[in-house]
Design a protein that fits this description.
With 225 residues, this protein is α/β, with parallel strands linked by helices. 30% of the residues lie in helices and 23% in strands.
Length: 225
């Protein structure tokens, strides 16, 4: 198969001097088809590269069937840890939990990882988490200001083992909602988010970024928004 530029050059030459090649018009048509095939292949490869998952960088092991062998398991029920266990993961779901000494209940083509000395536990569920953080270097008489950490916070929660997080109030509700959608769409890494509403502050609030309620009707309007 010709490279794209070479195929195009040969095709143009055929158009100008058709008698130079044995086979005449047929050869010219074949070369044109070869050029089209080359271009189509290049476009397909380009599209495949463009559709690579944005999360691929963060995935260390990716196999249809993954086996964690000789691992210590803490199941989160309060039961004692189980040593020398085997976990079989198929299609992203745990399908088998058994002793590593038992007959392997997994396909022959599974990817097996020796997890000796390592521990597996369920993901943590955070019930009061924030997606913002105080800005540094606040002057002694300055305002208390907070910055949305939409990029770093989800990654840090996930890195710390938090796979589900409920926010404890929202500083930028629309940002939080868009962040939740981006995570669910697989565009960025992060835990499953349960977004709460904005803060309801009374008069004299310490945070100028939070709405100060004027009366009960104002509170009702905010809740119903």
């Amino acid at each position: 198969m010709f490279p794209i530029d070479t195929a195009r050059t040969v095709t143009e030459t055929c158009n100008e001097e058709p008698n130079l090649f044995p086979g005449g018009p047929n050869l010219m048509q074949n070369l044109e088809r070869a050029a089209i095939v080359c271009i189509a292949a290049a476009l397909s490869l380009s599209c495949a590269a463009q559709h690579k998952s944005p999360l691929a960088t963060y995935v260390k092991e990716d196999a249809p069937v993954l086996v964690l062998d000789h691992v210590r398991v803490i199941d989160g029920t309060g039961a004692a840890p189980q040593d020398d266990m085997r976990i079989v993961i198929e299609g992203g779901k745990i399908t088998v939990l058994e002793n590593a000494g038992s007959h392997g209940n997994y396909p022959a083509n599974a990817k097996v990882l020796d997890m000796t000395g390592k521990t597996v536990m369920p993901g943590l569920v955070g019930m009061h988490e924030h997606l913002f953080y105080p800005l540094p270097d606040r002057p002694a008489d300055g305002l208390a200001l907070y910055a949305e950490a939409a990029d770093s916070a989800p990654r840090l929660y996930l890195a710390g083992g938090v796979t589900t997080a409920r926010t404890g109030g929202s500083l930028e509700p629309y940002t939080d909602l868009e962040l939740k959608r981006a995570i669910e769409a697989g565009k960025i890494p992060g835990p499953k988010l349960d977004i709460t509403g904005p803060y309801l502050e009374g008069k004299g609030t310490f945070a100028i970024q939070m709405h100060q309620l004027s009366d009960p009707d104002d509170a009702a309007r905010l809740v119903d928004y």
